[in-house]
Each structure stands twice: as structure tokens, then as C-alpha cells.
Amino acid sequence: METKHLNELRENIFKCMGCGICRGVWERKDEAMCPVWATCLGFEDSTPRGRVTVAQDILDGVIDYSMPLAESLYRCTDCACCATTCDAMDPATGKPIVDVPKIVVASRMDIVENSLVPPPVRNYLKAVYVNGNPYKLPQEDRGKWAKGTEIPVFSGQDYLFYVGDVGSYDERGQKMARSVATLLIRLGVSLGILGNNELSDGNDVRVVGEFGLFQHLAESNISTFKDAGVRKIISLDPHSYNAFKNHYPQFGANFEVFHYTQILDDIIRDSKLFKAKGNNIKLTYHDPCYLGRHNGLYEPPRNILNKIPGLELIEMDRNKKSAFCCGGGGGNFFTDMIGGETNSPNRIRLREALDTGAHILAVACPLCAKMFEDAIKAENLEARLLIKDISEIVQEAIQG
Amino acid sequence: MKKDKNKIKQLLVSIVGQENISGEIPDLIPYIRDSYSTMMGRNIPLPDFVVMPETVDEVQKIVLLANDYLIPIYPRSIGVNIAGSALPYKEGGIVLDLKRMNKILEINEDTMTATIQPGVTWGQLRKEANKKKLDIIPIGGPYQTSPVGNHLLTNITPYSSKYHCDRAMTLKVILPNGKILRTGSWASEHGGDANPYFRYAYGPDITGMFRGSLGNFGIIVEMVERLRPVAPVEKEIVFGFKELGPCLKALQAIERLEFTRTCQVYNNILSAHLCLAPHRIKEPGEREKLLAKLPPYQLGIGLGGTEEMVALFEKITAEEAGKRGGYSVPVELELESVAKGASRAIMHMYAPLSGFAAIIGCLPITHVAEINDIVKEAVKKYDVRDPLTGEPQEHELIVIPYDRSSTVYVEQEILYDPAADRATLEPVMQCLRECYAKIVVQYGASHTIPNKTLMKMLVPSYGELLVNFKKMVDPNGIMLPGGPYSLE
Amino acid sequence: MTESSRNNHPLYSEIRSIVGPEHVTVDEFSRRAYTRAPFFSMGAGGRGKTPGIAVRPGSTEEIAEIVKLANKSRIPIVPRGGGGSVSPFPPLYIGGDDNILLDTQRLNRINIDTEHMTVTAECGVILSALAETVRKKGFQVHTVDVPIHMDSVGGVLSGFVGGGEPSDMATSGTMNNYLLGLKVVLPTGEIIQTGGGPGTNIHQEKFLHRDAGGPDMTGMFIGDGGAFGIKTEATFNIFPQPSIYLPGITDMGGDENMWKAFDELVKTAPYPYTRLLSFREGNGPWYFVHVIRAHSQEEADAKKKILQDICRKNGGKAATVGDQIMQIAGMFSARRLGQQTLPVGSTMTYFGEALVPKPRSLEYLKELNALLDETVGDLDIYKRVDFVVPYLRATTITGILLYFGKGTTRDEASQRMAKTAVKRMEELFTKYGGWTETHQGTSFAHTASAWSPTYKSFMQTIKKTLDPNDILMPGLWRI
Amino acid sequence: MLTDYRSTIYHCLKCGACKQAFDIYMPICPSGMKYGFDSHYAIGRISLARAIIDGEINLDTALMHRVYTCTHCGACDEQCHNAVGVDPLRVIQELKYEAVDKGLIPPEVRDYLKNMNVYGNPYMLPAEDRGKWALNLDIKSFANQEYLFYVGDMGSYDALGQQIARSVAKALEAAGISFGILGDKEVTDGNDINLVGEKGLYEYFATANINLFKELSIKKIITLSPHAYNAFKNDYPAWGGDFEVQHYSQILAQAISNKKLKVKGIEKVKVTFHDPCFLGRHNKEYDAPRQILKAIPGVELVEMERSRNNALCCGGGGGNFFTDMLGSGTKSPSRIRVHEAIDTGAKIIATTCPKCFNMLDDAIKAENAEDQITIKDLSQFLL
Fold first, then answer.
1. What does CATH list as the number for D2-105?
2. Which residues on C lie below 8 Å from A19 (Cβ)?
3. Predicted ipTM?
């Protein structure tokens, strides 16, 4: 069986001591936790340490890739908790010597090449391949979210505002996309969108291991951008941000990429926009994995929230580096391989947010937003907690 | 087996020698009576023999013999017979009187341990230990009892146990099948004798299995007992309290600061009795005079350390006690000796007439005040009188923290005159039964000394486990059959 | 056994109906994931036995059911906790190809009773979770030090003789001392609870104290390597969190001074320290790392004075806390271990770490060093650290920590060691009446080999009594 | 009647305090140490007494050995009385009375009593010989001197006793004390007769003595033996015998302290003092003898661990000196005592009772310890 992608990481894989720290450390402020381990949703093989063990077995040729193994592998949300808790950091790169997320993606790439992809993942990939989006919706509908707004199509503005699949097709995503775009425009940011010409960023396609498709998407996007004369990109979705920033350059991309919270942070740093509010609203913020752990953007969203009068930001026990994943990462948003019903990560995280006594759970990622909206319904907490995107909060603050 | 009696006697004689075995009734009778049996009016059958071995080898031979002829064995260390633990409950057994095994085999200054035989008393051990600036971590009782005997009962100590954990380190036991078992780090075939000083080694904690086993699982012939270093300054201080509640709160708060050496609460009745030698109590007015100046409740605390440390601890305890209305009282000589670890003085708690109905239980400190009232009421209800004055009686109370958890050991004594006729004693017994019924059922207080009450409280599945172990270790049921804590 | 026959494990469907489909697996990759333990390749090489089926029960009752099944079909069970054994732990060797691996991670509930100062934790709870949950309530529970992030309550209570070494074992002994009671599934499938509380006392719902009044059955199950029963719940004493922890480092110079101070400190009453660790690198000076624990500043100062006086009197000088020293001081933290060795591509191991009687610790250390030079001294060892840690007053944990150079892989080192040193190492500490730390893992084979015949047969009887069908950890201690 | 002591018997706590001395935690009961079984300790004897009054057993010959091995040394009382408030000795005494009444006494005791009855002394010697000890010493018979010096059976007949009697007499003279003796008119004091349970005979001798003393208008008495001292002081008053009684050690101590008696020094030596039970525990006189020893230049007084109220009996009390129910052997108290003395490093055991003197002297010989330690009566230090 094909194991070449995994094989590239062989040396490091066999350095793992197997101490198990990567699973995360329970109940610690300063420690992240693997969603699978925390929710007890998998056997040892689904915990980061176990994944290394499995990888070793594969490289030793003791076991082969198989469908059940694939299912186990796709349970990973690529939240990178393991990569931050592991102590064996390579002084040179600052990255862990045994980089589990990398190992998982590599294995998944092998899985794809061995065509052992589990149905939900296969459907996801098929949809993206056929329709260009996981929602199996026509390309023409991509721009729909902007209908009835003054959001201009990109024509040489300073920024391209890239919304991605969820922003384009998902209801919650669209709402968020509109609010971000209108807000930025209102604040005088010169931006345009691609509308129906936008293509999927392919971040999650890459993470589930379909590198070929990802490369195709990346290259098409890059050429589209270049043709349109795009130099700077504002992305709605941290997933897109991650793809553009970290994985497009290998295909010759050289754009300046921002997440919208960075732009907002910049603009309102010294603005007098906000009307002082009397009542003090408690709110907490959830770090998206692709903004936080993957790209180290912990401060911009917080700066914004702290700037708004009448809001009190309370941190959850596990925040920033140790933020607990909503469970939507690594393709799970579309494939939900992780599952977990009452014990699912998003519901656990929601309860954690509730424990802070906050009334608003602020998010900066359409996937997180959706995950938590679902959780709220499941837990019947509509009355007690609101999920709001940072742009939405800013909007309200400005309108007063 | 009766017919073999002479044969058996001959065999026993060949083991311990003529002068250390007797089957004569006058020699046997003393072994079938103790406070418990006489109080409960229990008739204990006569054993066949009392045997006094001196060496491990002799004990082993006797046990093997007992297995051959299926004779029950009732071992006893030094013979403080109060709780009915060492009585020969089944007719025709052997009382194994171990008082001749009274050697202290080693006191090791470096490991701070003593290796002792069952006949060694706390007092004897303390005397030797003190010569090496060490001291015992004793039970609350009189010092003519033996550490081995106490290990077989329970491990209550007024010594704050967090830093005195595992008093018994390792054991040498003659199993009911006659084999010699060494526990803890002593278990090692080749290295054991080089290091019998550590309890946890080579697997499960077998030493613990014998604690509280009352000899059911075998006869401890040697035990390595932990000693404690004596601090440069050791001091006993006493605080008085008007109310029991605050007094207990103070005890809890101070215990949680983790520096006390000993810690206990007693009421004025008890302390009065402790301070007065029995013949002094009998002098009219003496007790009243003392009661007048004793606070209703007292918190006795033992401190240790360097001069300045003790001073500091004293200051802190005074604050904690003060916060709760405690005031310091001069330590009566006898009280001090009790606080230091009771000896003769503690015997006074049974005075003046040495008739006492003890209500013992371990339970959360939060309930102590309530059960104190329960006993008060019961004593009133059954109109139990003071054996001396004939006035309505107030009972004795002593509270000892059990580790630093909020659990305490509570002992309450109702005194009576054992010489009084049964009719006068009956209310005392009823009172005792009622108190036990209440504190056991309502508060789940567990008795610390293995006995019938305890057996009644045992959850079946757990009881079964004990019984299985008994069967396992003692297939022939040699050790103490028929007792209040027999595991048949 | 062939892959196909594995897929229909005799008990698959029955177990499935007990725990539900998602909590049982026969997939090979899944089962094999349980064959690795930290540093496993040390001293052993390769992986452990692959279980025939892995199951993750969610409750004590489910475990009891599974155990009953196992008894019916005589298929051995291997319980597993956090999988953090820092050495080849018995589970990895035990049983046959049909083994049922019992993964307890789903038993992770914690229940704190601050009024009575107790905490009850299920056996799957990771110790750092326990410690932290209790800490948040302002209390402290004694758990183990090194594998606190890896090991589970059940694993430590079974795997460590004495139930594990708390970080301040120097003064507070083993975890066993703070254990009030256990809920245990006996090998027969019966559920019992030990300790002076519910389970032994029909009238008591609270855990009061360890002694049920009768024999202490709790201790029986501690350090049993899981052979006597599957622990599913444990209740511990908790203590008020002291407000002050005061760490310090003292340079104690040569053997003689160090030992004088060490001996005096260990004999001091009350203890001025809560932790004490004595180590030296190569032939450098001895260092004391000491931690003072106090409920008030005054108390801390008083203790500090005593500690300093004793050190100074014997030529101790306050040392600056250099990285080097802290790194070595952290050698007991598995986390630092990783930081130290992996990046430089080297590897480390403990050499002859053993519990020996305090008075003879240095003597042992000398002989151990000699043995080291003689056996594996020629391996590329770039750092060796002697250490002596008091364990209450009578015993110390003494040994050498070895850091191998880049060239040396762990396997190479361990195989050399297994070949040349291990046997003589055991002979050496046995001579001193010591044993390889309290860890069942490294010493379970040695453990049994050290037993006196009577002890062995005694353990056999216990095992037979509890486990007539030899279901739990068959062959542990090779009895 | 034993039943009169019912409550005392019922008050026994069975705590075993009678086996071991508090504070020093050493075995203290002579018969217990020798025979070991509880039946030979107070705790057992009281159990037996209880069994009797509860009607479970009868007082019969089988019990005699347990009863008569008691040396009446009072060690058990010392512990029990202060700890639990019971006086076992009274019960044991009562057992002996009943044994005599029921005629159950063992042969050794019977012979002893017979001799006392027939000869008036246990040595079966004629009364005329009583005065012999004083021959060729000019000691006046009593004629209104200040004191009567009463020597008793041992002082009169026993070889060693006579030596002591003479040396005491010399000492008294040296101290300038005016005293006289009764010579062959002397009658046994009967202390031990009482202790073996023969009340009647005791009363007979007691009254005989009292009458004799009265008609000789004796007011003050110095006794040689603590046993006689005990009888005169504690029992005689009941029969109207009110005399001022002193043991010679008390008189001599006073004489020394008020310089009446010059003490010449002796060669430097370690001396340990053995408290006679009937001077010490029974009459609380611990200091007088020690004052004397301390007053002697060259004497360094070293104490045995079991001393004063915790002193270990020599085994000669309670009639055992004559009946020897306790028996000899390595475990006999006197021999244990000798070793205890030797362990203090002392070269001399000092005592002040002819019985103790005798017992310990034998023990030294039995242990062939003559070269390690010798025994001396207090008075012999003063000559």
C-alpha cells in the first residue's frame, strides 16, 4: 500500500516518546486539549499519541491503511492542540519534533491515494470537485449573499474581500459575510468581491488529504486573483486565511493576506465611533483554531472587543493557545466524522462559555459560528447565550 | 479431641517446657474474664490450656500442632483485657499468652524504627526510644498495652497522623498454616533482613491486611514500628471553651494548619477524672472543687519544633482558638501527661469505680455535638446516676481527630458501679444500647475496634470478602473461632 | 491468530451489547495502539502483546458485566488507565491473543466534598485533572509527581507499590496514606467497596476514614498491578491548599557535608521542608533542591531558618538557580525530560534507581557508579546525575540519571544495558534490601523474584481466592 | 469474709496495671515474674476471687499455690490504687484468711504455723535461746530506758539476723540512745502469721506483746525488722497497743542528722539501696535509709531502676521467707534483684531488713556473684 506521504515524516515519527502529553492536560488554564480525547470519542488510536503509534505501525508494515483506520484518522479536527502541548520542540523551527497534525494530514493523503476515503468525506470531496462547493449548489449562487447590498464586485479596489464556501452558501455564513463587508465599507475600506467568480479556497480539502484537488483550486484561485489584479486579500474565514497565507505561496502566490479582524483592529484602534453604553454586557471570545494556534492571531479580535465601551470581555478557562476546538475543523464541519451528540466538542465548549457568565459568545469564524448556533439549539440555550460575529458586535456598537 | 488432651499437653510441654503451659482451672479462669465479658455478663467457656511461648520457633510449632489437632488458638499480647478481644470464645482452645515475648530487638536511630515482639508494651518501648531521642507514636490508651496488640485492633492515635503515617512498617507473622510471612520490604528473600524498614514494596500492602484483623489472619511475632524524632522543644497547651461547637471548630481549623503534633478535645468531667487519682475523687467535694475551675470543654494541643517555631505555633493556635472564644488555661499536671500520651492518668477515666460503658464511634466532626447531646439525653432518660454521689450523671467525652480529614474518633463514657446489682446496671446497658443504635444508624458512626456491632454494620459483599480471606489464610479455622469478630 | 478470526472475537457481540457498538473494537490498528508505552523500548525493545479486543466501558457495572463474561469464557482481561507507564508495564506482556483490553478513559467523573475534605474520582481520571479540580476548590490532593499528566487514578493505584509517590513523598509518604477507600470490581465480577464508608458500613454514605474497623482491605488492591481487582473509584483525603510554596537551592559541596546535612534534615521534627531532592552532576558539588510549604509567611520564615541553619552548619551555600540546575532538578518531570533529550536528539534513562534504606544510600550510590563504569560506561554518556531523594525518614530513592549523546539511540542503550547491567543492578540493590523504585513497571519481574517462598505462596493464595479463573492480568509476577 | 470485698473485687478493670510498674514499665510482681500465668498476678487472683464469690468455683487446695506465692509486697496495690482505685492486696489477704478457716493451707504454710504455735518461732528453737544474740555484749535488758529495741524472730535466732541485731544495737549505743531489750522474754511480733492468714494466732501473739509492753510500761519501740515495725505500727493499735514505734533506720537517720552519731568514712564505693517492702511501700519510709547512706563519706548511692515505691520485692515477704511457696530458681525475684543491683555498677547492696538481707545474700551465692557484689545492713556501714 502507498505510504509515501507518511514515509516523509518517518524520522520524526519514531522519535516520539509516547508520553501522552499531546492528548492535552485536563482542566488546565494553560493547556489545550485534543477534542477527541476530551470527549472520549475514540480509542487510543484516535488520540494524538495513538495516531503516532499507528503511524509507526504503518511504516513498520505491521498494519495497513483500512477504512476503519481512515474513519479514526478523519476524526481529527486539525486543531493543533497536540502540536502546542508537546514539549519536544525543535529549537530551530519552534515546531514540535513530532508534529501530529502534519502526520495526520500525511496519513490522510495516503488514505486518499489508496482510495480508502470514508463516504462522508468522499461526498464532501465529490461535491467540491463537481460543484466547486460542498453544498452542491450552482456556482451562479455564489454571489447571492451580497444581493441587495452596495458591496461592489472587485475592480481594482485596495482589497479583495474573499468569503469562501461557508460565507457564500451557508445562511449563518452569509449573514456574517454581509455584516463584515458592509461594516468594512462603512468604515471606508475600499474592497470588492468576486461574487460568482469566487472559487473554494480548498483549505479543508487539503486537510482531508486530497492534495491534487487542493492544488487545482489553489492554482485557479491564484490565477483568478492575478488576472483581477488583486494584491491584498481580506478573508472572512480563518480557514481561507490559513490556506492563502501558509499553503498558497508554494504555488507562486504573493498576496498580502489579512483576516478581517486584523483590518478592523487597525481601523478602530483610535476611532471615536462608539457611543458609550451604560449597561455592562458580559461577553466571551472563542479563538478559531486557524486564526489562533495555526496563525498566532490571538490579539486583534480581543483588541477590538476591549475597545467597545459597555462590553466586558471574560476569558474562558481555556483560551488563546489552549482554546478548545469547536469540532468543526479538519473537514469535520462538513463530514462530522467526530460526532459525539451530547458530548460533542461544540456543546462542551458552549457550556464552558456559559460558565463564564457571559451573555454573548463572540466568534470570528463562520464555521465556529455555525457550530455554536447548532449547539445552542441542541442545548436549548437560545435564551441565555447569543452567538455574535465580531463584526456584528461592532456594527451594533456603532449604531448604538 | 478431648481424649487427646494429655497427648496434646505432652506435645505442648515438649515445645515450651513444663513451666510454661498449664491446664489447671485456676490458671485458666483469669483468661476468660475481662471488663467486656463481666460487663456484658458473658460466660466464656474454659480453654484447655494456657501456653506461654518465648520464641518465634515455639509459636510456629504450636500453630502447626493446633492445625494437626484442630485446636482453636486465642493469642494475646500483654493482656489488657478490656474490649473482649482476647477471650477464648470456643471451649477447649489454647490461650497463647505472649507476654514472655517482650524483647525490643532493635531501635534504629537512622531509620527511626523499632523492631519489637508482641509482649513489648508502649511504655517499655517509649523508655528505650527516649534514650535515643526518639519517641513512640502511641494510641490514646494506657501504656501497659502493646503496639502489636494495637495494630491488630485499630490505629487510632491522638498524634496528627499526616506526618506519622504507617506506624506499623513491616511484620513477621506466623500464618495460621504455620508458615512465617514477612511483609513490606522485609518480604525480600535475600534483601529483606537488610531492609525491613519500608512498608510499600514488592506488591500490595500486606501489612495493612493485618491491621484490625484481631489475629484472625495470623500471629504477629515481630513488628517494625515507626518512631518519631523528639523535637528540641515539645509543649502541651490547653484552651478552654464554654461551648462544644466552637471548640470543635477550633480543633478543625488548627488541625488543618498541619503543624500540631497531638490534638484532642475533652469535656470537664473527663479532665476532672483524669486530674484526680481515684482515691481523691472518692473524697467528697474534691471533684466539684476541680470542676468549678475547669472550663466546660478543653482543646489540648501538643506542639513541637525549635523554640521560635513552637512560639509561633503557639501564637497561631491561640489566635485560631481565640477567634472561636477559646482562652488558654494552665495545664494541670495530669492533663499534661495525658496530652503527652496518656499513661496512668488515662486510667483515671475509668475511675472512680472502673465501671464504664463506652460509646465509641468514628464520624464527621460536624456531628460530634449532636451525638454528645444524644448521650446526654439518654443518660437523663434512663436516669443513670453518678456511681459515687448518686446525683444525675454527666458523661465523659473525648474527641480525637482522625487524620486531617474532618473525621474524628469520639469516645463517651457512662460510668457505673460494676458491683451494683443487675437491676441497677440494666438501665446503663439500655442507655448504652440506645446510644449505639442512634449514633450508628443515624450517623453511621463506625466502631474502630472489631466487634459484634461492627459485624452487624458490614455490607454483605464486603463481609463476604473478609470471610473469603479468612478461609484463604486459615482453612482450618484455627485462629479465634467464635469471637465477637470471628470471620467464620 | 488470523485477521479474520480476530474480527469475530468470541466475546465481540456480547461485549458490544454491554457497552454499545462505538465503545468496542477489534480493528488491529486500534488494538495495536495499546501496545506502546512511554520509553517502552527502554530495556525491553519492541511492543507489548496485542489485545484481541479493546473495550471502553462507561461504568463500574459495565465492567462487572464484562468481567463476568470473561470468567465464563476464561478470556483474560488487561485493564488500562492513562497509558502513561514510564516503562514496560505488565499489561503489555500479559495474557494471550484473545485478551480483552479494558480502556478506562471514559470513567472520568470527579466528586469533591469540601465539607468532609474528601474527593472521589473514577479510575480513568487523569491525575492532573484530579489535582486541578481539587485545587480550584482551594484544596490539595496528594497525587504522583512525574506522570501526573499521563497516568490515571486507577493506573497509578495499581501500577505503583504504595499507590504512587506524591511530589512531597519526602514528608507525606505514598498516595496510599491518603486513600480512604476503593470501589473494586473483583475478578469474579462482584463489586465491592473498601474503607470506612459506604460499602463496608450499611449506615454510612460518607467516607470517614480508611479503617472499616476490620482488616484494611484497601491496601490489598494497591500496587497489585491490577491482578486482584479492577479499581473503578477511589476516595482520597484532601487538604487545605497551603498559601506558600517556597523553593530553594543550596550548594552542599562534597559527600560528607551533604550527607551530614541530609541526615539531619531528614531527622528534623517537624519537617522544615515538604520536598527535598539531592543531586549532583558528575563529580560536581551536591545540590539540595528544597521546597517549603506553609500556611503563613511567619511559618515559612521559621522553617526556612531551620533549613538554612542546618545547611550552612554543614558548609552549604545558597546557589543561584541556573538553567542547568533547574533542568536537572526537573529530571523528575517527564515533561522536561522530553524538552531535554529529544531536541538534542539524545536519550536518557535511569540507572539503578532503587528504594534503599536511608543509612546506606551513599554506599549504594558508590557501588552503583562503579558498576556503571564497568558495564555501560563506554556508551556515549554526555551527562550523568547522581540523586538521593528521601522517602519519609527510613528510606531514600537513590540512583543515577544518564543522558546519552546524539549517537546513542534508546534501543542501543537499553539493549546494552539489558545485556550487561540489569541483572547485576538487581543483585546490587537486592543486597541493600532495595528494589527498583515503587514502580511495578520496571520491577514487576524483579518484584516477584525477590519474594520469599512463603510470600509467594501467600500471594498465590490471595490470587486464587480472588481470581479462581485467573482472569485478571494472568501471569503478573509470574505466579 | 471474702464477700465483704465484693465491690473491690468487682471493681477490678482487668487492665493489667498490676503486672508492670507505671513510669518505668518494668515487671514488678514477684510471683507473676516467676510463674507468668495471669493467675499468679493480682489480676488473676482477683478473677479467682470473683469466680469464688460468683459461686463458679470453690476455694480449694488447687488455688493455694496461686494465693500463697504472693509475697504481699504491695507492688500491685501501688499501681492499681493510683490508677484504678482498687486494692488487690486486701482481697489476697482475705483469700488467705479463708484458706486458713477452711483448713486448706498448703503443707509449707501449715508447718510454719505449727512451729509458731508450738515453739513461738519458726526455727523450732526454745524460747530461752531468744536472748542469745546479745550474749557477751553489754546490752541492758529493758528497764525503763527510753526505748525498747525489739529484734524479732530473725534477729533472735537466725545467724545473719543476729549479726545485724548486734550491729544495730552497737550503732544505737554509739548514737547514745538509751534502750533495752527483752531478751528471752521477747515474743514474736506475728506479722507474717497474719500475712499467711492465721488471724487468731496473730491476735494471740499481738495481745501477748501488748500486755508485756504495757506491764513493762514501754512507750517507745525501735524495731530491727520492718515486718515487726509494720505489725506494731499498723495492726497493734486495733488491740489497744498504742506505742511510739520506729524502725532503727529512722532513729539512726535522726541521730546522724542531729550529730548525735559520728559517722566515719569508708573506702570509696558505689552502693545501691534495696527498699524493704514493709518499710517502703507499706509504710512509705523511703528517705531515712538513704539519708544514712548519703551521710557516710565514701559511699556513692546509685539507685536501681526499680526503687522506692517501685522497688522489686526480694521474695521473702508474706511468709514466703519461711514457707518458700514462691520457690527458688533463676527466675526467683531475689536473683533478678541481685542482677539489677549489679547492673547499677554498685559493689554493695545496702538493705535494712534481716529478711531481705538473707534472701539477697543467698541469691548472691546462688548466682556466684560474691566477687561482683556483697550485701550489707545499714547498721554495718556505721561500725
1. 1.10.1060
2. 38, 84, 149-150, 334-335, 337-338
3. 0.88
